[in-house]
Amino acid sequence: MFHSIKSGIKKAATLATVLMTTFTASQAFANDTINFGIIATDAQQNLRQRWEPLLDDLGEALGKPVKAYFAPDYAGIIQAQRFGKVDFAYYGNKAAMEAVDRADAEVFARYIDADGLQGYYSLLIVNAENDSINTLQDVLDQHEKLRLGNGDPNSTSGFLVPNFEAFANNGVSANDFHRNVTASHGANVMAVANNQVDVATNHTMSLVRIEEQNPELFNKLKVVWQSELIPSDVITYRKGLDEELKQKAREFFVAYGDEPQQLENLSLLAWSGFAATDNNQLLPIRQMEAFKKLVEAENNSNLSEKDRTKRMAQYQAEIDQLQTEIDALKG
């Protein structure tokens, strides 16, 4: 009896040692690999081909392999970064704001496009054969009977900017359209081309790639509105990463594009390099988000006058504080 108990304890201890060894080896392997989060706006194979040369060079600079981690939406990347499954991530400004607030992310670089511009534009697109919609005013005038292809709620160019600049500023909500469908940039392009929606959000970088890779599809699209310049999308890392690793990453991105092969790699993404930046880049985006909430509160008929006034005052105070911070950065 005693012998069998003793034998059982010994076996359990051996099993625990094996499991611990396996876990430690697995953990060490995970720590030796950098995961880079990318939203799957296109087929993963296409994205992988565009990103892999850059990520391979990043891995060489960091001394660790860098693997692409794809998720169908920004929320998936943000959650992955929050729980340590993603170390670096590429975000639009709105998603970066969420990642900074919820996933302990830190902004450190932004891309420079092929023309040297550190920004891009949000767009509203319609089918090229649609003769009744040629301007934003046409969209606003007809919105109640139009099907809208809206973007990911965490997308800057696909959701925040067009819903604020194009719609909220003109007293219209996406929910006021006949139909409001949320989808990725790629899905919205196809929906417009196939007349499944009447108007959809998108951005200039997406259309640049489509024009280069699929001219036939590009010719089916028509831009009817363009936003103000949006600061370029950003690269982030988790704050908890090793400081030396983060420093190497900052140096790598700011210097990348100085060599012909690097420029060729960047051309796959329609970029020419990177510029240093930080979380302060997100202040105008935060202000835009606060203003959108102020407009929503003002137009919310379900709120009492007291609650409406309270919420509007809260959002206005946030807008004013953010403006103070923006002005201070301008000097």
From TrEMBL:
<protein>
    <submittedName>
        <fullName>Phosphonate ABC transporter substrate-binding protein</fullName>
    </submittedName>
</protein>
<dbReference type="Pfam" id="PF12974">
    <property type="entry name" value="Phosphonate-bd"/>
</dbReference>
<comment type="similarity">
    <text>Belongs to the phosphate/phosphite/phosphonate binding protein family.</text>
</comment>
<dbReference type="GO" id="GO:0043190">
    <property type="term" value="C:ATP-binding cassette (ABC) transporter complex"/>
</dbReference>
<dbReference type="InterPro" id="IPR017797">
    <property type="entry name" value="Phosphnate-bd"/>
</dbReference>
<dbReference type="InterPro" id="IPR005770">
    <property type="entry name" value="PhnD"/>
</dbReference>
<dbReference type="GO" id="GO:0055085">
    <property type="term" value="P:transmembrane transport"/>
</dbReference>
<keyword id="KW-0732">Signal</keyword>
<feature type="signal peptide">
    <location>
        <begin position="1"/>
        <end position="30"/>
    </location>
</feature>
<dbReference type="GO" id="GO:0015716">
    <property type="term" value="P:organic phosphonate transport"/>
</dbReference>
